[in-house]
Amino acid sequence: MNLRQTIRHAAADRVAAHRRPRVLPVLMWAYVVWSLVPVAIAVLFSFNDGRSRTVWQGFSLRWWTGDPNASLLHDESLRTATINSLVLAALTIIITLPLGTALAVGTYRWRSRGSTSANSLVTAPVITPELVVGASLLLVFTHLYAMIPLGLPAQLLGHITFNLSAVVVTIRARLAMIGGSYEEAARDLGASRMQAVRFVLLPLLQPAIVASVVIVFATSIDDFVISSFLSTGAASETVPVRIYGAVRSASSPSLNALATLLVLISITALFLGIVALWAIRRRQGENVSLRTVLAEVTQADA
Amino acid sequence: MNAQPITHRDRVWRVIATPGIAWLVALFVVPFYAVACVAFGRIDPIFRSAAPEWNPLAWDATTAVGVLGDISNGPLRGVLLRTVVFVVVAVLISFIIGYPVAYYLARHAGRRRTLLLALVVLPFWVSYLMRMLAWVNLLQPDGFGSRALRLIGLDRVWLDGSATTVVLGLVYGYVPFLILPLYATLERIDWRLVDAARDLGASSRQAFWRVTLPLSKPGIAAGALLLALPMLGDYYTNDLLSRSPNTEMLGNQIDFFLNAGTQPQRGATLVLVLALMLAVGASWYVRSVVRQVAEATR
After folding, report:
1. Which residues are within 8 A (CB) of A150 and not within 5 positions of it... i.e. 6 or more apart?
2. What is the C-alpha to C-alpha distance for residues B251 and B39, in angstroms, rounded to an integer?
């Protein structure tokens, strides 16, 4: 075999090695279909004309607005659950954001004695399952912090606690990207340490803060375990708690409508977050397209 | 500025971190201590409610010993064993589904990558309960899923006590948590190493087993942990898809004893058992990361 033949064989091998896979794309799309179609069917059934959640009986808005008693618009308990979820998520954001941002900046810079235990304390809630957090909060609220009643107040404290670490992780990732040089420059130009934080660091942190808002909102509104452990019945039911309670008992497609509304709310929040991120970066002088921001957000999620 | 003693610079950051730290101590550490105090406390003789013992010197281990006895050779042994088997099988199935997806995304998705990633991330924005609700509807005897499965010869009751349904429910619920860390690791792999292996005569299968797979180890470890931890503490998937004692897991027992039953002490002890299992898993993960870092820097 002469040299030319050898090279040709090697080239053919390389082509074979890089031939487009056939099975993998099929698996990929099969996965996408499997993961999303069941949800799509559940959404579809919220528009079912009949009472069934399994047999299609024609399209109607009966379970959204039409039915005078059982529709999402008119059923008191479904409305309460929706409002509870939104109020809880909003309050959680308002308190978690400043608390988490300060905690992230503080633990990121603090390097001396005590910082190791502070860091493990901040990371521990990330890997603790919600069942453990929910159960321990239930016990502490019933036995030690008796002044905090179960229901919305306890749920709020619980949601803040398990979202705090997620905020810290998000903000610290951004802090690592920013580095210390901008603040040092501000200090060299005569800013005090707090001024440097206020006028240099916080504006640079804005994208991470927006991302945190979206993450906290979505986590809080989707949370089931903590809300359920700390709820006191119908008055403090959130949407996931309501779905859990009603899934297996015979009920109407208004439950599907409620779940669909929750999905719409989360996805709207995500979309608004992406637009806000885009607007911030435009204002800070970057010429990015909305499409680029979208691509970056999905990459960063990974 | 640099002349300032380091401790002084540090104090500012410590002050800034203090409210958050205090919050976590009051609402994460103290509650966990309260679990131990309930587990090692007493039961109020009149109200049958828990009477926690706050002084660790006076802890009473009667209930805890009883629960440990039930675990080693009593009614809880089956539950604990089932929990471990369900989680292990669910994690393995998740890898069989998730690895090819993450691999395709990282290596072959090309121009479609953003679209596909968005589709893979999308389930995170759909409430977990909604995703289970979807399957409850599909698997009702007259649901689309049951009817489709009947067409291919699988005619059975899927809800109410099927272990298969519970395990697949766990897989469906948590597999996105696996795909993202796997993708993040695979995406950073230098594929020239795989090309080099091929050029040196490895078959594509050999190149995968001896180059790609070892390089994706960090993602595999992180994914396995991110998957196993929430699955171990899951009780709602089981409740929604089965609600039968035949498929009960540790989480269901905890939920039952704390939320419905009159034995908070037993519930609290089981929370401690669960936390112990998680601590073992987490420390295994930390050790494997440390080892990998050590190997990489050697």
Report:
1. A138, A141, A142, A230, A231, A232, A236
2. 16
* CA distance between the termini of chain B: 37
Say how many residues make up chain A.
302
Q: Does B155 touch chain A if contact means CB atoms closer than 8 Å?
A: no
Q: Which of B274, B279, B106, B252 is nearest to B179 (CA)?
A: B106
Residue A82, chain B, CB below 8 Å: the answer is no
CB B71 within 8 A of CB B81: no
DSSP code for A234:
G
Q: Count how many pairs of residues, chain A against chain B, have C-beta atoms within 8 Å.
A: 279
Helix, coil or strand: residue B156: coil
The last residue of a domain, from among B25, B45, B60: B60
CA distance, residue A28 to nearest chain B CA (Å):
5
Same domain, B53 and B72: no
Domain-embedded: residue A70:
no
Domain span at residue A162 reads 76-301
Q: Are residues A99 and A172 in the same domain?
A: yes
How many whole angstroms separate alpha carbon A281 and alpha carbon B110?
26
Residue A84 tokens read as: 């509870």
| A173: its two tokens | 């990732």
* Residues in chain B within 8 Å Cβ distance of A295: 114
Reported confidence tier of residue B139, pLDDT bands at 50, 70, 90: confident
pLDDT band of A37, cuts 50, 70, 90: very high
Interface contact flag, A294 B118, Cβ < 8 Å: yes
pLDDT digits (tens, 9 = 90+) for A168-215: 988 988 888 888 888 889 888 988 888 888 888 888 888 889 989 999
Residue A12 CA, chain-centre distance (Å), reads: 47
Looking at beta carbons, which residues of chain A come within 8 Å of B239? 244
The number of beta carbons lying within 10 Å of the beta carbon of residue A270 is: 19
One-letter amino acid for residue A142 of the chain: T
Domain CATH number, residue B293: 1.10.3720.10
Alpha-carbon separation of residue A18 from A8, B195, B215 (angstroms): 15, 9, 19
Same domain for B19 and B98, yes or no, is no
ipTM confidence = 0.86
Contacts of A27 in chain B (CB under 8 A): 100-101, 104
Q: Do B21 and A302 touch (CB under 8 A)?
A: no
Which amino acid appears at position A70 of this protein?
A
pLDDT of amino acid B2: 46
Confidence of residue B102 (pLDDT cuts 50, 70, 90): very high
Assigned domain for A62 exists: no
Tell me the β-bridge partners of B43.
B50
- Pair (B140, B285) in one structural domain: yes
What are the structure tokens assigned to B220, written together? Answer: 């595999």
Residues in chain A closer than 8 A to B142 (CB atoms):
52, 54-55
Encoded tokens for B37: 């105090």
Do A13 and A113 share a domain, yes or no? no
| Residue B98, pLDDT score | 94
Give CB contacts under 8 A, 24+ apart, made by A196-201: A197/A105, A201/A105
pLDDT of residue B246: 85
**Same structural domain for residues A21 and A118?**
no
